[in-house]
Amino acid sequence: AAEHWLPPDNFQEDPKPVVAHRTSPTNIGVYLLSTVSARDFGWAGTAETVERLEATLAAMRGLPRFRGHFYNWYDTRDLRPLEPQYVSSVDSGNLAGHLIALANACREWIRSPAAGAPAIAGIEDGLALTREAVQGLPEDRRTQTITRQQLSEALDTLAAALGRGLAEIGPQAATMLDIARTLASERGDEAGAEMLTWAEATHRSIESHLGDFARTGDEARALGRRLAALEATARSLAEAMEFGFLLDPERKLLSIGYRVAEGELD
Q1: Predicted local distance difference test score (pLDDT) of residue 3
Q2: Mean local confidence (pLDDT), 166-180
Q3: What span, in angstroms and rounded, lies between the C-alpha atoms of 54 and 261?
Q4: Residue 190 and residue 13: Cα distance in Å, rounded?
Q5: Residues 21, 3: contact at Cβ < 8 Å?
Q6: 3-state secondary structure at position 264
Q7: Roughly what angle, to the nearest 10 degrees, separates helices 46-61 and 25-40?
Q8: Is the confidence at residue 123, as pLDDT, over 90?
Q9: Rounded to whole angstroms, how far apart are CA atoms 130 and 136?
Q10: How far apart are alpha carbons 124 and 266 in whole angstroms?
């Protein structure tokens, strides 16, 4: 499942696409905060965000650790720590702080499980980016069944429906995406592909929020229990990290890290 839902350290585009199949505690912590931020900005719904967080925290719980600390590097394919095994005070400190922020966010969402106004703002972000991509499409003089104007009109219709709330936008969102897909297919160029990327992202955001607003009372209570479990897991992972042995007692400062094989502070 997406390399165990652990983020890769980097992605190289040139000279050919290459994913770095390794991750660090800082990479993981920033991914968790990115996921939280996407929900708070209204780009993703709560239930989808919970699914993502659950998958990553489940993977984290299965990673080998040293005195509660995650090692500095793991292979994202088989989850083994990379040699030489090392505990970084900086990375562990980053991740501990990120996990506490995640736990606090989950606690807030239990009180307010639906994004509300941020959901509207998040969808509007997607619409704005899609419009920008449509406006950036070069003129194509070939005969097409779908034109830029038709897609712009579909975006206008969707925006007007959004102004009345989330309840009515499902059909308009589907129509917009169908038009975008047809236009991108007919154009077959990079600009059309980029436009479609934003149209699909906007549609996914809408579907994510519609799933939240369609929840029954029982489903909402179940989501609250899942959020409480996420909060507890995040706090326990942060609190399990022992920082005492990383302290240089003479300088009263944390060492840079700990070389596991040698059993020595760095």
Answers
A1: 62
A2: 94
A3: 32
A4: 15
A5: yes
A6: strand
A7: 170
A8: yes
A9: 10
A10: 49
